[in-house]
């Protein structure tokens, strides 16, 4: 039996660490320079333990969903 999300130590505890991981994922996937990106919005979902970070660069935008316990990117959706 594994502990619930409330009992596990989160690796992405702060908004700063979530934004940092999201920027890293976008730079790898879209070959964008970090200085071109801006953070549009962040949200933490208490129910699932996921971070959502919206980033924008040039005329593009993307939403990055990350698992706060595993500190991994689950999906990147360009909008």
Can you give a write-up of this model?
- This protein has 79 residues and is of the alpha+beta class.
- The protein has one helix spanning 15-30; strands spanning 38-45, 50-57, 60-67, 72-78.
- It has one domain (15-78): Roll (Nuclear Transport Factor 2, Chain: A).
- The protein has 1 helix and 4 strands, in the order αββββ.
- It has a 4-stranded antiparallel beta sheet, with helices on one face.
- β3 and β4 (72-78) form a beta hairpin.
- The model has no long low-confidence stretch (mean pLDDT 89).
Provide keyphrases for this structure.
79 residues; alpha+beta; four-stranded antiparallel β-sheet; 4 strands
Question: Brief description of this entry?
Answer:
The protein is an alpha+beta fold. 20% of the residues lie in helices and 39% in strands. The longest helix is centred in the N-terminal third of the chain and has 16 residues, at 15-30.
